Amino acid sequence: EALGETSGVHGAAEDRKEKVPSPHLSQMVVLTNSGTLYGLAQRVVATESLVFLAEQFESLQFHLDTMMPAAKKPFLQQFYSQTVSTASELRKPIYWIVAAKAIDYEQMLLLMAGVKWDIREIMSQHNVYVDVLLKEFEQFNKRLEDVSRHVRIPLPVSNVLWEHCIRLANRTLVEGYANVKKCSNEGRALMQLDFQQFLMKLEKLTDLRPIPDKEFVETYIKAYYLTENDMEQFIKNHREYSMKQLANLVNVCLGSHINKKARQKLLAAIDDIDRPKR
């Protein structure tokens, strides 16, 4: 304020007193490059620095608690419960975007749409979309190794990335199977063959165990063999599947085995489950 009397200078002085400057992303940080896994190195430095800082606060908690006046202790407890304890949880949303872009899930859906599932003989060879998906995971693994040469990727970060990618892939598989318009018993057996091939090769790429959402896919494929009564119970017990995915089981899987009235009853049961969400 001593620098001048004008409002402009006075305003500049006030600006310098702001508590926390507005955040901005450095122009050197590129979050759109697939080769660097969408700025993974920078994401790791930022996130793991915050996690490290939270760990230091954890180790200081007893010391800070003994020094804090009794009237201020509730604020300290709130800081630990609402801020410090949640630092590691930031990993999932921050690294999720990397996993969502690292694998071309849309390409997999398109390839699955071109597969003929109403076959009449048991196949011994899996479909091409499985190989394409595995190549995507191999490329992801290589890029992860490239980034780790510049910035060490801690095991918890690697696990979160692999978990996200595998979950998204498995959920895309179920969505692809739910898009099928015609399917035979042999076609459903081919789905099982495809998924087993995917799991076998995937387990060689990652140490993550168990494979996330493995049961999510297997349960959906096996639901093809359910009877009408079993399907009604399945619909009630498996809320993890979307309305569309459940409806596909009824229309495609049971469609040729049950009459129109029974099918409408099962579709109504699906609609009843979905109604509270609206």
TrEMBL record:
One annotated GO biological process: retrograde transport, endosome to Golgi
GO cellular component: cytosol; EARP complex
GO molecular function: SNARE binding
Biased composition (Basic and acidic residues): 12-21
Signal peptide: none
Record InterPro entries: Syndetin_C, VPS50
Domain Syndetin C-terminal: 37-271
Region spans: Disordered: 1-21
Name of protein: Syndetin C-terminal domain-containing protein
Source species: Pogonophryne albipinna
